[in-house]
Amino acid sequence: MRILLAEDEAGLATWLTRALEQSDFRVDWVADGRMVRRAVRDTRYDALILDLGLPGLGGHEVLADLRAADQRMPILILTARDSLMERVSSLTEGADDFLAKPFELAELEARLLALIRRSRGSEHPRFACGPLSYDAGAKQFMLAHEALTLTPREHAVLRTLIQHSGQPLSKQEILERVFSDEQDVSPDAIEVLVYRLRKRLEASPVRITTLRGLGYVLESTP
């Protein structure tokens, strides 16, 4: 899952980015409210963590700007302004959740996962596609109730696909979501990994289908 973090405290942002990446999130960080719209325009994010006290353009203005542009990704407000009025105004303006500083990392991760699941129309604690499921907490794939053994890169690609099951992802989108910090991975490597995953899934009804001009989509046949 790819997250945009809008936070002007460099120390907090660096720590939070590293912590979330250890839990399989990919995090892009901006420190100025004016950079949020540009980031959202250029990249498809699963959620936004938004601080209210941003320079350039405040969090409330960023929130209003995104919702006015019909940007529907989940937005979690993360701020030191912990008051009932602040919570009510943020939620009224279009925020999906509100978490006050200081906070526990486990709670932030749980709230993010819940927001992303709800945005996809599912409250199920696991991501699933037919008999294939992924437990984000255990970081484990199950296929027809049996653990699926994958290499780290296969795991990363399949995790991205199941988190967007039914939605096509281009090779470049997969590359950016999975290997953004690795310089030695090319789009051709994604083709190889998808081929390997197809071999692992070939005895099941789960398929990775190529949609010409759109990319790969994970789906389950009847």
Automatic annotation (TrEMBL):
One Pfam family linked to the record: Trans_reg_C
InterPro entries reported in the protein's UniProt record: CheY-like_superfamily (IPR011006), OmpR/PhoB-type_DNA-bd (IPR001867), Sig_transdc_resp-reg_receiver (IPR001789), WalR-like (IPR039420), WH-like_DNA-bd_sf (IPR036388)
Organism phylogeny: Bacteria, Pseudomonadati, Pseudomonadota, Betaproteobacteria, Burkholderiales
Keywords, sorted A to Z: DNA-binding, Phosphoprotein, Transcription, Transcription regulation
Modified-residue entries (4-aspartylphosphate), positions: D51
Domain OmpR/PhoB-type per the UniProt entry, residue ranges: 124-220
Annotated CDD domains: trans_reg_C
Ranges for domain Response regulatory: 2-116
DNA-binding region(s), chain positions: 124-220
The name this protein goes by in its record: Response regulator
